[in-house]
Give the backbone structure.
Amino acid sequence: MTFSLAALDRETGMFGICVASSSIAVGNRCPWARARAGAVLTQHRTDIRSGPLGLDLLSQGFGAQEVVNILVAGSEYPAQRQFAVVDRDGHTAFYNGLGIESINAAAAGDGCISVGNFLASADVPEGMVRAFEASSGSFAERLLSAVDAGVATGGEIQPAMAAALLIVDRHAWPLVDLRVDFEVDPQHGLHRLWKAYEPLVERFVIQVLRPFELKPLINSALTV
């Protein structure tokens, strides 16, 4: 019950994922990314264990197709799984289990891959890829345009109620990790969160590496 897109930003080297679902807490279960390694999507009867495992394999130098093959081979229930991977070179691969009874589909672009299940239309992943490749602006904005396109192309058969945006850069922690849960039209909430968070992205990096450089914010609620 999920549609998503994972991508490499070739200009910056960042990896990012945008995802939406009718299932709560999709951002906690489906999108996984690691700086300088790649991104993994694990969906449909989600096996959360596959996210960290896939990232470990990418960090060891395995390519996207190799990682997908290993995840499938190691799964107790491969017919129920859906995987997609982007590796450090921007190569992509996906797997849709034969036991997925709903409409499921995938589409690949330059350094990006989109997959979905319980879709209202098999065109959803292609629409997400096209939107991502055609959009301009920051990497986050391009990812958000992809999830917007997924909704516009039909989304899934049930209304989306959760959405997430995950981006990693050069560090061990996510640069962006925003989530909307149990909310109608969660893609709109994700846009609002990004607009609020965008001015603070660099600040939250500096406070880890050079905290003495920071000046207090006027709004004390933002001095986390």
